[in-house]
Design goal:
Elements lengths: L3 H4 L2 H18 E7 L12 E5 L6 H12 L4 E7 H6 L8 E4 L4 H15 L4 E6 L21 H4 L4 E10 L6 E7 L3 E2 H5 L3 H25 L5 E6 L6 H9 L13
Parallel strand pairs: 1-7, 2-5, 2-6, 3-4, 3-5
Antiparallel strand pairs: 1-9, 6-7, 6-8
């Protein structure tokens, strides 16, 4: 069987980056990065993005985020093997299949993750819960196999990534992200697995909680725009909305 690493194609990545960018722009005002949450690249060491998994759009963000914020990395991401059979083209953009809810699936995941993380220029994006999970769920779920990652890649750096989707003052949504403090795999490896899981969960929750405060503030100035999308509604209704816009619709406006 061909290695998932060998199937990845830069041509396909460029093609789908354009397609995903267009799809994103039709549904969101912007992809915004919290100013305090810039990623630390960890050059010369394999990188694991430990992300939460709030919704369907996470799969699109996988490409948009890595290609714009970590362009020097060759990214790979696991996906439910059954779903991947329906979308075989995704193997060309760094996606590899993992059987869900089975010990064999954990072995598959770790085997491919080991291959990916053997190269210090690679990035492995993993959705820490292993399932969709609301950003408010506590304790934040950590899927089986996550605590094993430091064991198969002791030189790696784990970087928490918080994702949240919100609607502020426009018809289209806001995609908000922030990276947390990096964790050295070798430091996590020194902990027993239960404590390791607690440390990973605490790092995820701290990043998610801080991003939530920025989402609640509804202040675009707290973010850097990574990718601008569409605004408002088009057509006659959109023109009417622009004509009748009042300052109180701005989340930052306050009574004087």
């Amino acid at each position: 069987m061909t290695s998932p690493l060998a199937l990845r194609s830069e041509w396909w990545l460029r093609f789908f980056d354009r397609a995903f960018t267009h799809r994103f722009a039709r549904s969101f005002v912007a992809l915004r990065l919290a100013r305090w949450g810039e990623p630390e690249a960890a050059p010369g060491r394999p990188l694991i993005l430990l992300a939460n998994h709030p919704g369907w759009w996470d799969g699109v963000l996988t490409m948009l985020v890595t290609r714009r914020l970590l362009p020097e990395r060759r990214g790979f991401v696991p996906m439910d093997a059954a779903a991947l059979k329906k979308y075989g083209f995704m193997r060309r953009i760094g996606v590899f299949g993992v059987e869900q809810d089975s010990p064999r699936g954990v072995v598959q995941f770790l085997d491919t993750a080991r291959q990916v993380l053997a190269d210090p220029s690679h990035l492995l994006w993993v959705n820490a819960p292993g399932r969709f999970a609301d950003v408010r769920e506590r304790p934040a779920p950590i899927a089986p196999g996550m605590t094993r990652l430091p064991e198969i890649a002791p030189d790696a750096v784990l970087l928490p990534l918080a994702i949240e989707y919100a609607h502020w003052t426009e018809a289209r949504g806001e995609a908000l992200i922030a990276f947390g403090a990096p964790m050295a795999a070798k430091d996590l490896l020194a902990l027993p697995r239960p404590a390791r899981e607690d440390a990973m969960r605490a790092a995820m929750e701290a990043t998610m909680d801080r991003l939530a405060q920025d989402a609640i503030a509804r202040d675009p100035d707290r973010f850097r725009t990574v990718l601008a999308g569409g605004r408002g509604m088009g057509g006659i209704y959109g023109a009417w909305q622009r004509l009748r816009f009042a300052p109180e619709h701005d989340a930052r406006a306050r009574p004087g």
